Amino acid sequence: MSELKICHLYPEVLNLYGDRGNILCMTKRLQWRGIRAEVARVGIGDRASLADFDLFFIGGGQDFEQEVLLEDLKAGKGEEIRAAVRDGKTFLTICGGYQMMGHYYQTHDGVKCEFLGAADFYTVGGDKRMIGNYAFALGEDSGGSTVVGFENHSGRTYLGDGVKPLGKVIRGFGNNGEDGTEGIHDRNLFGSYSHGPILPKNPEFCDFLLETALCRKYGAFQLEPLQDGFEKAAHDSVLEKVENGTAG
Ligand code: GLN
């Protein structure tokens, strides 16, 4: 039986706006196809061999929670996370968890958190929060679907030269409200500002991530289609509201 080992990193501190729903969504979409999903929660102070996992999820958190994690990252987990990214493991990281994968996050009140530098980008906090339902179009190499979600961040993220965003903003702020980019896709590291959680209303993107992790583990791997008309209808209904400006 095929299997994915999923690591939920820092579930006790990085879990805003139902981000944990991403774990439930991935687990269910694997199980419905007869693929085993094993989920481990790895928090502050926990020592686990991160090399044993196939897929990682990190949710969002406020500035305070991000500062709390710095010691734990320095104590060894940071290096293991970088190694897993280099090794092509699949990562879905959201908002505060996404910011953590970059070089640093400077909060709007001037605290500089030196983060992992697992990919080439950085984040600077501003006075204005970027809040609302939004939508973005994924690049072809991230499956090419359209994603709907909810963003709430003061951090503005800037990608290094040659680093690809996850997608292009259709409506909303995305990385910084300036350059039309949203998130990052570097090797198999995916970062996004989309809470909500992101995956239940975006089943195509969920399957793309699962297939990425399965292909890395088993070589070619194609997921069977599911009957997910309900999820797709939820996606389409939000997209319509976001596009015509009635989603809030
Ligand atoms: N603290 C970060 C910011 O405001 C992340 C917030 C979040 O994860 N929603 O930019």
Structure explained in plain terms:
Helices cover 29% and strands 30% of the residues. With 248 residues, the protein is α/β, with parallel strands linked by helices. The protein has one domain (3-244): Rossmann fold, CATH 3.40.50.880. It has a six-stranded mixed beta sheet with strand order 2-1-3-4-12-11. Strands 5, 6, 7, 8, 9 and 10 form a six-stranded mixed beta sheet that branches. The model has no long low-confidence stretch (mean pLDDT 96). The structure holds glutamine. The site of glutamine has 13 residues, from helix 2 and strand 8. Pathway: Cell wall biogenesis; peptidoglycan biosynthesis.
Low-confidence stretches: none
Spatial order of strands in the largest sheet: 2-1-3-4-12-11
The chain-level structural class is alpha/beta
Query: Which percent bin holds the helix content?
Result: 25-40%
- Biggest beta sheet summary: 6 strands, mixed
State the total count of DSSP E strands.
12
Associated small molecules = glutamine
Query: DSSP strand (E) fraction?
Result: 25-35%
Given this structure, which CATH class is correct? Alpha Beta
Q: What is the molecular shape?
A: globular
Number of domains: 1
Radius of gyration from CA coordinates: 17 Å
Query: N- to C-terminal separation?
Result: 44 Å
Say what the CATH topology is.
Answer: Rossmann fold
Instruction: Summarize the helix and strand pattern as letters.
Output: EHEEHEHEEEEEEEEHH
CATH superfamily: Class I glutamine amidotransferase (GATase) domain
Kindly state the mean pLDDT as a whole number?
96
Reported CATH architecture = 3-Layer(aba) Sandwich
The number of helices is 5
Pathway: Cell wall biogenesis; peptidoglycan biosynthesis
EC number: 6.3.5.13, 3.5.1.2
InterPro entries: Class_I_gatase-like, CobQ_GATase1, GATase_3, Lipid_II_synth_GatD
Protein name: Lipid II isoglutaminyl synthase (glutamine-hydrolyzing) subunit GatD
